[in-house]
Amino acid sequence: MSITIQRILELPLFTGASVASGQLGLHSPIDSVNVMVKLPHEQEEDGSAPAIPDISTWLGKNQMLFTTEHVIAGNGSLSLRFLQQMSCAECAGLVVKANHREANLPGDLLEASNRLGLPVIALPNDASLGEMMSQVLSIILNEKQVELERTFEIHRKFSRLFLNGASMSDVAQTLTGVIHHPILIQNNRRQIVGWSATARQRALSPAFQSELLQLSVHHAAAEGRLIYCVTESGEKLGIYPIHSSGMFKGSIIVMHADDTIDTSVMPLEQAAQIIAYESIKQDALMEGSNRLREEFFGELLENELSSVEEILKRGEKYGLTNKGQHWVVVSKPLAHTFEGHSTFQMEHAQLEHLMNEVHAYMEARNIQMIGTTKGEHVVLILTSLQETPPAGQEGEWIRLLEQLQEHMENGKDRWMIASGISNPADQLDRLPRAYQEASQALRHGLERNRGPFVSSYRVQQVPDLIRLLPYHKLSEFYVSVLKHLAYAKNEESLELLHTLDIYLQNNCNVKETATAMYLHRNTVFYRLNKCETMLGLSFKDPIDLLKLRMAVMIHQILTATEK
């Protein structure tokens, strides 16, 4: 229980004290005390620097300040400014000893105190500031000692659990005994791995598991802070995220949460340390199996496995099935925030952390997903057992990936992700080809975009092939074909180039070209004849038409690139 001004006023030494103003701040906690013998001045009357240091620079949060009416009286503007400085520093309150029998404080000071919610306590003239400060400090130190002893005792309880190899449910039950609330514990994939006896029924409920997963995924994991959320039934939950070395390790879920939890964060911190240690231990134990998993998917995606039977036999334990259609997604993290700083370098542990975050999000959406890391990428295999047409299902996957990107970018780590998605593969032995397609889609997307995107694989069309050629080669070709029209700037040249483009789009049909451009046929004939003369080409020659089509297409590609 923290020391507040309300509790201080109940001490025998404060019997004659009265609350002059700022009653709304009486429950402010007090962590320290200080004394003010003079209001801070910018300079002395003779222009020299102040003889007494400026106390406003020493103000601290939750600090109670003692002074006398003599210091306050006759300094209206300075008093108001100092009160504002106390409020900005989040001080607990101001105690003023009267010059005479009762304090006569300025009305504007009391009004400002009420407005700021900063208590001003008036003391009678016979009160001893030294004794009061000494007693308040003594109470604060006693409370701190009790808090330290309680912290040590709680730490010893949890340390004993860790050394004895206790389960997460044992940790949850011990924490429940300390804060008197049912407790659930989630791992880094937001799966419930421990619960107290009073939370067992909810922990085993599939409906509650699904709802809790969605709540915890969609609430940013702010380190060292309790986050509140409300279930559909109106129950208030507290989510305390656990981090170690900047990595998310799980959460402590406090059920039936109320305002008293804010004062009991210390037990959560102690339990979080033990859970983080256990998570690190489990990660070390899983390192071997994770390596085997990565080796299997590496061989699978590089087409080093000989048959569907071998793929199915080795991959069944990871969730691979030969039913339905499979899409491969290759995702590359562009940037994220690590320990409060933006970084573009990704270590393997950070990729594993990203994959766990993606897995938790997909599980919250009831999407079955298989994930692995490969190089600097996270590779996902999405499977659909529904009879949805491939094009429609691909559209759903793209929307899901875009929502995932938005969720990850808005989370604590601020992940920015670029993804490429393959065409569907109806057999497991076609996954290597799908992986190549997704990688190619990602690579092409990175050439065109700098921010997050989802790029789907498409069989390369003529424009895609053209883009693979060097710029100077393309420029030489289209200038040699289009001649003066290659750099058309005046109105006439632009009209001729536009007419030529529409003519080619309409399969060299003059009538359809005239209709599309709202021109008379003779006008189109005139422009086309002029183009033939300028370019030295025949629009009846298939080779010349092919050159012309290629040149116009190159011109459009280069113009779009320059823009």
Structure description:
- The protein has four domains: 5-140, Udp-n-acetylmuramoylalanyl-d-glutamate--2,6- Diaminopimelate Ligase, Chain: A, domain 1 (3-Layer(aba) Sandwich), CATH 3.40.1390; 165-282, GAF domain (Beta-Lactamase, 2-Layer Sandwich), CATH 3.30.450.40; 302-459, Reverse transcriptase/Diguanylate cyclase domain (Alpha-Beta Plaits); 465-562, Orthogonal Bundle (Arc Repressor Mutant, subunit A), CATH 1.10.10.2840.
- The chain contains 19 helices and 16 strands.
- It has helices at 5-8, 69-72, 76-88, 107-116, 129-163, 168-179, 200-203, 206-217, 265-301, 308-315, 348-364, 390-410, 431-448, 462-467, 471-482, 491-505, 510-517, 521-535, 542-562; strands at residues 18-21, 32-35, 63-68, 93-97, 120-123, 183-186, 192-195, 227-230, 236-244, 247-254, 325-338, 341-343, 369-374, 377-384, 416-421, 453-456.
- The strands form three sheets. Strands 11, 12, 13, 14, 15 and 16 form a six-stranded mixed beta sheet that branches. It has a five-stranded mixed beta sheet with strand order 1-5-4-3-2. The protein has a five-stranded antiparallel beta sheet with strand order 7-6-10-9-8.
- Helix 15 crosses helix 19 (542-562).
- 32% of the residues are buried.
- Relative helix content: 40-55%
CATH class of the largest domain: Alpha Beta
CATH level-two architecture of the largest domain: 2-Layer Sandwich
Structural class: alpha+beta
Task: Please give the number of β-strands.
Answer: 16
Largest sheet: 6 strands, mixed
Unreliable residue stretches: none
Distance between the termini: 66 Å
What is the domain tally? 4
Protein name: Helix-turn-helix domain-containing protein
Organism: Paenibacillus soyae
Family: Belongs to the CdaR family.
Domain PucR C-terminal helix-turn-helix: 496-553
